[in-house]
Give the backbone structure.
Amino acid sequence: MGGEDYAVYMKGIVKRFPGVVANDHIDFKLGIGEIHALLGENGAGKTTLMNILYGLYSADSGEIYIYGKKVSIKTPKDAIKNGIGMVHQHFTLVPPFTVTENVILGYEGNKPVLNMAEARKRVSELIDRYGLGLDPDAKIWQLSVGEQQKVEILKILFREAKIIILDEPTAVLTPKETQSLFEFLRKMKAEGRSIIFISHKLHEVMEISDRITVLQKGRVVGTRNTKDTNEVELARMMVGREVIFTIKKEPSKALGRIIVEVRNLWVNSDRGLPAVKGVTFSIRKGEILGIAGVSGNGQRELAEALIGLRKVDKGNILIDGLDVTNKPPKDIVSLNVAYLPEDREELGYFKDESIRSNLCSKIRYSFLKKNFFLDFRMMNQYSDTLINEFDIITPSRFNLAKNLSGGNKQRLVLARELAIKPKFLIANQPTRGLDVGATEYIRKKLLEQRDDGVAILLISEDLDEVLMLSDRVMVFYEGEIMGIFKPEEVSLDDIGLMMAGVKRMEVSA
Ligand SMILES: Nc1ncnc2c1ncn2[C@@H]1O[C@H](COP(=O)(O)OP(=O)(O)O)[C@@H](O)[C@H]1O
Ligand SMILES: [Mg+2]
């Protein structure tokens, strides 16, 4: 029997994806008229659990009760019928349409015929009642991100949802917009609606929620009343675990002069808000500097600025003493800078070309030319050497790169990048999505490169990985460095606090 006193009771939810148990027997109860925060690091399983509740994924096993009644939610339509609404991390609005048009898009209410004038009137009423300050006739593209989010919420209110899921709603908001969202959540709560608020920011969760459930690696670590807990306990619940060192690392053999110097760097996000806020650090020859932190705290923008793919707003980047700030990527690459992008499916390689052309793509003109033509024998030799050295498993160098497995794709990109004998390597999420064997291989390669004297910037969501490989670690939070330290100098609790933006540590490193 299940939870008559609860708006939502999810019981024993299991959801597997290839290679990962995203939700591992999760029990979760949302009280009526409560704001319940779901807290956890990236990849903890928060979005998956909510997508199950909203009918976007089906669970492998488990049960869902809504107000005590067992339900079967197979599609978002089923969820909406059960009074559930969800604001996703990525909005689903249609830019050329107006606010009102977007709100009624796909609406299937009880009231059968809905004319535009009537809809507009109801939308206006909702806007007034909740003090949203939106113009019902404004086009979506004219609105700020914060306003667009309000439209998403309007959609849910229009459908009279009683249970509202917000997946990291504050990630795209300015602090001021966050405060106005919170006011609004309090209003909805006062009306008896029940709210699930997903976040990885401890101070927000402490401010807005009544209860908090912490997930870690697909499991519930615990649920607390907000007034009975504190940020230290929550941080420990979020990240506290035994670090598993699968690789023994010796001190670097090749530590040398400063290769990369970043001074007071400011970089904007796609939305034009500051994503990197005045960071200063350096990386030496033969050193791995790791960035720990929940994704979305400016790491990607930093990496893109370093390789010249994103404009630097203020500050400087020096590579081997040369100022490369706002230089085009080809100039930066020509200084022997290698880059493993976060999103290898989109940016990492040429999908529809052969493994051979991919491997040769970085050196084609300088090296593989005979008279005016490509020297195919040379290309074959070159790519076969790399295929061997990097254990790329493929029947032939002529196979299309897109047909490689995930681990082999990453080896391909790594082979291509390392073959230019880099001075500086930027590795963003180098082992994400790889199996254990491929992960171990990539990690060993990174250490090998370090010992060969490469300066490496390692960005990873996997805290264990960062601590395992890095000579020094810096923690990023909302575009700022919360601390730079040697991994053995600082406790996991403290790292958790820095990752959550609670604590700043000035350590000598
Ligand atoms: N559609 C999917 N296919 C494969 N794996 C997925 C999918 N969605 C999520 N995952 C994996 O499930 C785990 C949990 O992810 P997610 O629920 O998005 O975490 P969170 O929202 O807490 O960051 C991660 O390891 C993620 O890579
Ligand atoms: Mg998520």
